[in-house]
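Lab notebook, bench 4. Continuing the backlog of folding jobs that were queued last week. Each job is logged with the same field layout so the records can be merged later without manual cleanup. Today's entry covers DNA-3-methyladenine glycosylase I, a 177-residue chain. Filled in by technician R.K.

JOB TYPE: sequence-to-structure
TARGET: DNA-3-methyladenine glycosylase I
LENGTH: 177
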Amino acid sequence: MADYCDQAPDHPFHGPYHDREYGFPVNDDAVLFERLILEINQAGLSWLTVLKKRSAFQAAFAGFDIDRVAAYNDSDRARLLDDASIIRNRLKVDATIHNAQVIKSLQAEHGSFHAWLEAHHPLPLGDWVKLFKRTFRFTGPEIVNEFLMSTGYLPGAHRDDCPVQARILASGPPWAR
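JOB STATUS: finished
OUTPUT FIELD FOLLOWS
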């Protein structure tokens, strides 16, 4: 988002995300899971809507605790679909629970979700999209692209002249290796 670097500064929601999170490398599985779920929930909506609901998502999905979300059952699904503080889309809720279960499998096989990502890096976007579509639910090209940019696996989160870009490069994102 080239214009994100222009619209985000001083914005109460976009600003902190742009300045401290977007594009920086992430190695914590719970944070990676959160980013994936937030990107899935953004589909068809504005990023601002998702950022405004972020704390509600954190509460609804147990702080993005992968084990807890993977164990969600039908009553949890009903609770989520009744929760007006989050995006109540059945496909997105189901994808969140399913993807937590998939990440648990990836953790068992690779040690962590982060290690699974590292094992496949670098890939061109098209190959990442195919991999994510085979592995997860509700992960189309835009969701995969934004997830990978937001976590430092693909470049493009910030313009080269954005002051945050220098901090991202100093943090050693995977795309810059």
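OBSERVATION: Residues 26-158 form a domain with the Endonuclease III; domain 1 fold (CATH 1.10.340.30).
SIGNED: R.K.
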